[in-house]
Specification:
Length: about 180
Amino acid sequence: MSKEALLIVDMSNDFVDLEGPLNVGEAGLAIVPYIRDLADKFLKDDKYVVISMDDHAPDDKHFDSWPVHNVTRSKGQELYGELKEWYDENKDNDHIIYSMKENYNAFFKTGLEDELRKRDVDTVHIVGVATDICVFLTASGADAYGFKTVIHKRGVATFTDQQESGLEHMQRCFHSEIIE
């Protein structure tokens, strides 16, 4: 029997709040209720929920290319709004995994693969931001480790005009199932 995990990518204040330095705009705000409802459903069904969060030191070389964002333990790195409330209500549930990442790919040098393997997870449902960057590369990482990937179209957003092509590439390149 298949075991599934929901992987929530980079839903931080810096990416979702309209005042955040790399916010994805109204599209990011619009996906929050969907993600919260999906996370509730996963926990209710005894499935896993992974929160993968971008994590940078204040002097990270990453900021040569991007504005300063998601600095370790900053307000900007915290989960956004309803998702933070949801996490605070559920953080003691042993079906929740919090994973920090220094790279776009939630699987790159994070130990996430091992955490999911210990729980016999074989299918990863991915939501979050940005569709064509961190979500795309996380789908790539999941696929490289042999996980089936499912992308929830209503649960992803980006600040570029590459939303649809990002989804098409995940479907084509990583055989991701795209759920409307």
